[in-house]
Amino acid sequence: MATLENQTPVFLLRNMLKFILSSSELADDMLLSMLVGLCKELLPFKMTDHLPNEISIPSVTELFKSGVCFSPINGIMNIRFDDNMFTFRLPVISLDVNTGHSKKLGSVAYEACKAFGPLILTRYTELMNSIIDTADDAKFLKEIGIIINQLKSDKDVANLWNGMSKSINLTKVPFLDKVINDMNKYHSGRLKSKTL
Length: 196
What we know:
Blueprint lengths: L9 H12 L2 H19 L17 H6 L3 E5 L6 E3 L4 E5 L1 E3 L5 H14 L5 H12 L3 H9 L3 E3 L4 H9 L11 H22 L1
Parallel strand pairs: 1-3, 4-5
Antiparallel strand pairs: 2-3
Helix pairs in contact: 1-2, 2-4, 6-7
């Protein structure tokens, strides 16, 4: 059960807000706003309401057009870009109504409050936010088995990830940053070779 010391459990607070506001959506938005406000006060680093410095990496569609293949794997710690096979290996993730925006942001906020090392889940979320720009990107990852979509549409998947852009300042996780740098080097090299 998620609580802060001497505080109301989150599920109870959500249910109270749902009753008062007569809407699950409004309750989730209010709870999210409250959690973000709390984290702004508690976190030792500055939070921002906008994220002008999103990870610079091409979308799934752009990467595929430049020759990158995608392959499902198990576990965030196994994310890799195989530059010999030109394959971006991403973990399988199942998305349904229980993994909505507020729950994913809550997980990221929890990690930020509790973590003493690299914020791996946060950086993974930033990465997915950066490579999934459209419903086509989400559909592509669904078709190859990286995303198991139990939401209403591929657009809902794209909106979920893109809604995560209001996050804490970009984090650094060495093994994921290496993957991002390797992807960008490969993509830039492919663009240069096409123009020659």
